[in-house]
Amino acid sequence: MVVPRRLSGRSGTSERDRIVTGTSLQIQSVLFNNEPKDILRAVQAIDRAASTLKRARDVALHIHYGDCSPQRPCLEDGDLDRIRAALTQGTLSYSFFNANLGSAEGHNRLAAGLTEGYVLIQNPDVVGEAQYLQRLFEVLENSSCGMAEARQLPIEHPKDYSLETGETSWATTACAMIPVPIFNRLSGFDSKSFFLYCDDVDFSWRVRLEGLKVIYQPDAIVFHDKRLNRDGSWNPSGAERYYSVEAALLMARKYSRPERIQDILRFCDQCADDVFIKAAARYRQLERDGQLPEPIDPEHEVSEFLGDNYAPHRFVI
């Protein structure tokens, strides 16, 4: 495993294991028809990692779940009792939103009211190894870092990062830690623009526009269960395809890429797929209604549009 040199430069066990100044950490996930057994497994992993973290840091831990399931809550009282019984470190709260708010708005509501410490945005099906929390904290000790991302297995995200520093274009919020003051300064995720996809790309780029770094930490390892076809391709649902196209159009608008907007709209207009036609129609309706995001980054200081990707990839096919 390659560890960015600037992240692995500590010397001696005493430095790594010392107790540092106390702080708070909220780990939060947005639920949508998740199984209670999967949430229990995630909480057990958090508890194990929190026990490891406690040996090095005085951290007050809170887990906050927000449920966007459309018909009934994922968790009943009995489920919550079993999950809380498995938690030896920190506390857990659960909110049923009774509406599908989307990922960005769901996380904004979960983080509302936080004023200090750190927030870990994490998918509910993510299971971290015993040191992943500690490794993410180590990255954020550097005051120039505004966001730290964990490594996902068995399918690692292919976007590029610096082997020297860990710097990367953006961090996926399948598992990423952010200092609360930075999250608040940026007003959280842009939930007005992004419902399901690209809220993390947008947030990462706004972190970098603040002069801060987005760091990928390959030593913070989490298991993220992803199902692929036999040939290794992803088989997205209709909703996932629709929101991917919608987000691509809105990202191009927000990051001052009019030529990219036209390319996507042209493709949608020539495509017989109803999903693409619907996404293009939605974008044009937002434009008529004056509800598109205001363009930023006109000099393209941080934004990257490489085909359908928002960063260079390490693997060339």
Structure notes:
The chain is an alpha/beta fold and 317 residues long. The chain has ten helices and eight strands. The chain has helices at 13-17, 36-54, 77-85, 103-111, 132-140, 180-185, 199-209, 238-254, 258-270, 274-288, and strands at residues 20-31, 57-67, 91-96, 118-122, 126-128, 145-153, 175-179, 213-224. Helix 2 links the parallel strand 1 and strand 2 (57-67). Helix 8 runs antiparallel to helix 9 (258-270), helix 8 (238-254) packs parallel to helix 10 (274-288) and helix 9 crosses helix 10. The longest helix has 19 residues, at 36-54. The two termini are 22 Å apart.
Name of the CATH first level of the largest domain: Alpha Beta
What's the end-to-end separation, in Å? 22 Å
Structural class category? alpha/beta
CATH topology of the largest domain: Spore Coat Polysaccharide Biosynthesis Protein SpsA, Chain A
Which stretches of 5+ consecutive residues score pLDDT under 50? Answer: 8-20
For the biggest sheet, the summary is: 8 strands, mixed
Number of strands: 8
Number of helical regions: 10
CATH architecture of the largest domain: Alpha-Beta Complex
> In which range does the helix fraction lie?
25-40%
Strand content: 15-25%
Number of domains: 2
Radius of gyration, in angstroms, nearest whole number: 20 Å
**Helix-strand topology string:** HEHEHEHEEHEEHHEHHH
As laid out across the biggest beta sheet, the strand order is 3-2-1-4-7-6-8-5
Rounded average pLDDT: 91
Shape: globular
